[in-house]
């Protein structure tokens, strides 16, 4: 494990900063929407644009990692995220749209790049735990955004955006001393075959285990990003929370996601295995989404935070177990390509999920209906995961 911790630490930091860049606009959505004269529900469109760009970028990540190295690709991602956030600070809707594209292009390659590094340096029996620790960078970015962005609004929302951009730039320099050692396997002469973006998707569709994992990640991602995108707005508009209190509640849910990712990775490696662990998490997400829909302003704050913590632990905690299983199921030496292909489907769920959540909530006049729809999606995921487990149990009984 000694050789694992160094790449784990740097990939964790990079993941946290690009995640913070992505979540910053949703956290400040009520203030931003009021200043620009638009509805807060439009934040779902912003997130959808980010992940549409991320989906395309993830498909090209395998070729870029092979040529430039995982650290260099990750540094490029940080630079793009910083540029996108800084551009959004101009305050016009076209600038924010282009900024969303840049953030997505920066965010998309980071996870395939880190999977490439960790697949090379992690013992197989600790894959779920190590990948889960690395993926805590996503909710950790949410913790940073929820805890720091509302106080940073004293600088104005433009100043807060520029501060987040500066943090991403700083991380580029932090990663640079590790670049030579960790990118030693790069092939500078390898051609960039970016035109064949369908290759990762074909790999996923050709392998039934990868196909199942990708399909379930589509539904899990709807739940995760609906929670992350709309929680502050839901608490502010429906439960009458102040923006700082709502941001702290988001931080609680994201912090629980950090704990959940490590805990579920350990439980998966030690006892349940990835498929059973994901089935348990699907059931937990469905229940928590229904409980969140039932929250009301008269409930004690601790009760609300307990529900949101459990929601975050499950809706955010699934990712590391999923990515580790993708790396296990990928053909040898092709973890970054398989990860890029499955993440394209994951990101498709994110592209469709928050805008659909916002549209449904807007049409019905209730964010609660959106959370009920999230619960229904995860019930479908649970059914899909249980089916092969039941077939496997039936086969064992027939052999016995």
UniProtKB/TrEMBL annotation:
KW Phosphoprotein (keyword) present: no
GO MF term (any one): transmembrane transporter activity
Short name of one Pfam family: MFS_1
Positions in coiled-coil regions: none
Keywords: Membrane, Transmembrane, Transmembrane helix
Residue intervals of the Major facilitator superfamily (MFS) profile domain: 7-393
InterPro entries: MFS, MFS-Transporter, MFS_dom, MFS_trans_sf
SUPFAM superfamilies from the UniProt entry: MFS general substrate transporter
Keyword Cell membrane found: no
Membrane-spanning ranges: 43-66, 78-107, 155-175, 212-232, 238-264, 276-296, 302-323, 335-357, 369-389
Protein name in the entry: MFS transporter
Lineage of the species this protein comes from: Bacteria, Pseudomonadati, Pseudomonadota, Betaproteobacteria, Burkholderiales
């Amino acid at each position: 494990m000694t050789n694992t911790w160094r790449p784990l630490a740097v990939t964790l930091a990079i993941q946290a900063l690009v995640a913070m860049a992505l979540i910053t606009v949703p956290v400040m959505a009520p203030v931003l929407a009021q200043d620009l004269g638009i509805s807060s529900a439009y934040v779902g469109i912003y997130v959808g644009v980010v992940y549409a760009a991320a989906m395309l970028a993830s498909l090209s990540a395998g070729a870029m990692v092979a040529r430039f190295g995982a650290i260099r690709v990750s540094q490029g991602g940080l630079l793009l995220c910083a540029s996108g956030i800084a551009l959004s600070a101009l305050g016009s809707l076209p600038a924010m749209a282009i900024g969303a594209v840049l953030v997505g292009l920066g965010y998309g390659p980071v996870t395939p790049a880190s999977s490439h590094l960790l697949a090379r340096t992690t013992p197989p029996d600790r894959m779920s735990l190590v990948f889960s620790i690395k993926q805590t960078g996503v909710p950790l970015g949410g913790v940073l955004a929820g805890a720091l962005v509302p106080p940073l609004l004293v600088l104005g929302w433009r100043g807060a955006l520029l501060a987040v951009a500066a943090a991403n730039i700083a991380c580029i320099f932090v990663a640079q001393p590790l670049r030579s050692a960790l990118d030693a396997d790069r092939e500078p002469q390898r051609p960039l075959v970016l035109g064949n973006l369908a290759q990762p998707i074909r790999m996923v569709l050709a392998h039934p285990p990868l196909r199942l994992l990708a399909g379930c990640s589509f539904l899990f991602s709807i739940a995760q990003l609906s929670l992350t995108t709309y929680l502050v707005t839901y608490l502010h508009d429906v439960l009458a929370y102040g923006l700082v209190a709502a941001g702290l509640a988001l931080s609680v849910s994201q912090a629980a996601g950090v704990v959940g990712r490590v805990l579920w990775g350990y439980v998966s490696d030690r006892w349940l295995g990835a498929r059973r662990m994901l089935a348990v998490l699907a059931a937990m997400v469905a229940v928590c989404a229904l409980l969140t829909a039932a929250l009301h302003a008269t409930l004690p704050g601790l009760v609300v935070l307990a529900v949101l913590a459990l929601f975050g632990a499950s809706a955010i905690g699934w990712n590391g177990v999923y990515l580790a299983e993708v790396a296990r199921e990928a053909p040898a030496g092709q973890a970054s390509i398989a990860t890029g292909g499955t993440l394209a489907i994951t990101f498709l769920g994110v592209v469709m999920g928050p805008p659909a959540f916002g549209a449904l909530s807007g049409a019905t006049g209730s964010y609660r209906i959106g959370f009920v729809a999230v619960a229904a999606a995860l019930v479908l995921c649970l059914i899909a995961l249980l089916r092969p487990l039941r077939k496997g149990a039936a086969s064992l009984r027939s052999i016995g």
